[in-house]
Amino acid sequence: MYQSFLIKYAEIAIKGKNRHLFEDALVSQICHALREVDGEFNVRKEQGRIYVEAESEFDYEETVEALQHVFGIVGICPVIMAQDEGFDALAQMVVAHVKEVYGDKSLTFKVDARRARKNYPMTSMEINAELGGRILDACPNMSVDVHDPDVMVHVEIRNQINIYSSEIPGPGGMPVGTNGKAMLLLSGGIDSPVAGYMIAKRGVSIDATYFHAPPYTSERAKQKVVDLAKLVAKYSGPINLHIVNFTDIQLAIYEKCPHDELTIIMRRYMMKIAEHFAKENKCLGLITGESIGQVASQTMQSLAATNEVCTLPVYRPLIGFDKQEIIEISEKIDTYETSILPFEDCCTIFVAKHPVTKPNLNVIKHSEQKLNDVIDELMKTAIETTEVIRVE
Ligand code: ATP
Ligand code: MG
């Protein structure tokens, strides 16, 4: 029934002189998202609007789904576009549209006509009244409600005529690529994919670093993280996933440092290595899925100790969220089912029974000195042997 979509965007419309940069980024993200969809599309910018027009047969459901993954889109309106061939032709199209979509349902409606071309021979009010009358004649079960209609029939008179009456919600946010890049510490848990999604939603491109500890962690645990990166990439675009072999560093920490400090010390080395790759890839910050008090390594004291090794800002979008709130987002973005697959994480293997909850930075630094002989070499090897996978 539809051949085109009108794309609504809100936040990027307020960016003043930069507006065209944001619109161009949105167009380019839409084109990217539609590459995977069956069909040929023309995406164009016109008079402060973006239109997606199918130029061949296309899969409607797939197209809508792809558009629902593009940050910056607030609404997706399936639209009928036509040339202006006089008011009678317009009225016929509007009536046909309403009949086809709403049939003989008992619904209330309102016509909302807008003229971008003020030389049209009727005013908006006259168009509303006339079209309303014709819809009532053609659809006896429908009635007018100007305050709270079930269906809002939009008629826009521009260079062409647009007719639409539904708006499918988009994901909101800002087009990816308009706000630099950040490095996500991506584990196989529930939290970090959600954290990546939330920062990408603000227009930030994402790279990721995952620490594994073979043979203590399996190939399947690694594949799970690759799969999670793929799901995040549906929103964020391509992710360069750095897979760091962390085994020897973890073993050294386990051997030389007090066991109740293992997780904090390990986190500090993860941050250092992630920051190394962040800087190498022009990232402007790090992202983690941490949330205050979630576990011993995320008390305020632990977060301070972890943070201390970083020179880049660390973005923690989930910092004030409860687990249940995080789970709701992970279900919405479809990462939950993958996150809960029961493969061991490198952190869970070397955890202490009673980890410190209020680490003292001086004590931690003192413990880390026991690694002085080996750590530089181990870090160097971990960095040099890191595997990078481009996840699309
Ligand atoms: P969960 O959903 O079980 O909390 P999690 O991945 O958040 O999973 P935490 O132990 O809470 O696990 O880790 C806190 C944060 O540290 C993660 O959100 C992630 O950003 C980072 N992190 C933890 N383990 C790893 C890892 N193996 N590789 C990369 N980042 C990690
Ligand atoms: Mg967590």
Automatic annotation (TrEMBL):
Pathway: Cofactor biosynthesis; thiamine diphosphate biosynthesis. Its EC number is 2.8.1.4. GO terms for molecular function: tRNA-uracil-4 sulfurtransferase activity. It is an enzyme of class 2 (transferase). Signal peptide: none annotated. ATP binds at L185, L186, Y210, F211, R267, G289, Q298. Keywords: ATP-binding, Cytoplasm, Nucleotide-binding, RNA-binding, Thiamine biosynthesis, Transferase, tRNA-binding. InterPro entries: Rossmann-like_a/b/a_fold, ThiI_AANH, ThiI_fer, ThiI_N, THUMP_dom, THUMP_ThiI, tRNA_STrfase, tRNA_sulfurtransferase_ThiI. The keyword Secreted does not apply. Catalyzes the ATP-dependent transfer of a sulfur to tRNA to produce 4-thiouridine in position 8 of tRNAs, which functions as a near-UV photosensor. Also catalyzes the transfer of sulfur to the sulfur carrier protein ThiS, forming ThiS-thiocarboxylate. This is a step in the synthesis of thiazole, in the thiamine biosynthesis pathway. The sulfur is donated as persulfide by IscS. Belongs to the ThiI family. NCBIfam families: tRNA uracil 4-sulfurtransferase ThiI (TIGR00342). This is Probable tRNA sulfurtransferase.
